[in-house]
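Quick one:
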Amino acid sequence: MNMQEYIDEAEQSLLHTYNRYQIVIEKGKGVYLYDTDGIKYLDFVSGIAVFALGYGNKEYNDALKAQIDKVIHTSNYYYNMPAIRAAKKLKEVSGMDRVFFTNSGAEAVEGAIKAARKYAYLKDGTTDHEIIAMEHSFHGRTFGALSVTGTPKYREPFEPMIGNVRFARMNDLASVEELINDRTCAIILETVQGEGGLVPATEEFLKGVKALCEERDILLILDEIQCGMGRTGHMFAWQRYGVKPDIMTTAKALGCGVPVGAFLMTEKVAANSLAAGDHGTTYGGNPLACAAVEKVLDLFGENHIIENVREVAPYLEQRLEELKEKYDCITERRGTGLMQGLVFDCPVRDVIERALENGLLLINAGADILRFVPPLIISKENVDEMIEILESCIEPSEED
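Output:
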């Protein structure tokens, strides 16, 4: 089959919930992907901030192959060594106390919501507690995660949601204070909004929200699914501010391609929320997924991944700022670390498609924002290569 035949077959077999770009990816190496025709693409998407280590990392691949030859799945009726080791290492890098492994980021958010509601229920025995989330946020597509996602177009076709969720404005502490009442049990936000436009929380806002939570015994849930795992130059973005959450969610680069997520909590929350029988998952924390987590955390240290982000990210910011100054159609650069965005004065899909035709993979974050979330192993030379291709794709739109 040629590439078009694969695409035609997919359109006959797969549920059409994605407007996919018209290529079929076959393999990857380093920071490049290759389609079934052998065409090479510089990847500034990394599976939507997943493949932090790049493609074809031998040590990572060998660790998974070795685990496959031992055991892939056992269920949570039994302990398994990879889960024990992965949880210990995840606690060490996060400073959190308890870990629950899930299959995805959305499931991690589901668990975080349940933990927060159970915590409040055990305090007063009522079930009418409220959660404050942020406008323009994105937490996932399952019902609970969608209920705290602050983009109405994602929620409206599926309403009613789980209820008792109210939305404040990111980086507007007064808007949070206005919504807090005696029924508020948790405040959830992305430390850096991803789908909502690459908007980092300000230090003042995050510390202000944390203070409100401590005053009223409200749980602070920080969603680090996209912005965590080294992408901002810290293992988790909240560590930059020193604002520790009560519950944290993580996924994406946690497994670097193997579907795995987790929600973590402090000992105080763990001792006063979910108990045996309250929550579970068949696949979560299985040996294969946790072997991936364990190896990813090892390789982050051995390969100095965070140090590379801190070295390359300022250069990426500089080159993106140069584009903003050069082209009138670019109005703003946003983001932090290797999680960057360029805001255009028009939709960016044509730019993305031209980039694809020229061997560069990019995605958007909203109709008018180009998003840059490359593998965390990229070099300054990769940044230059990306900028050169991107410029050739912006110039036609300038002429249009």
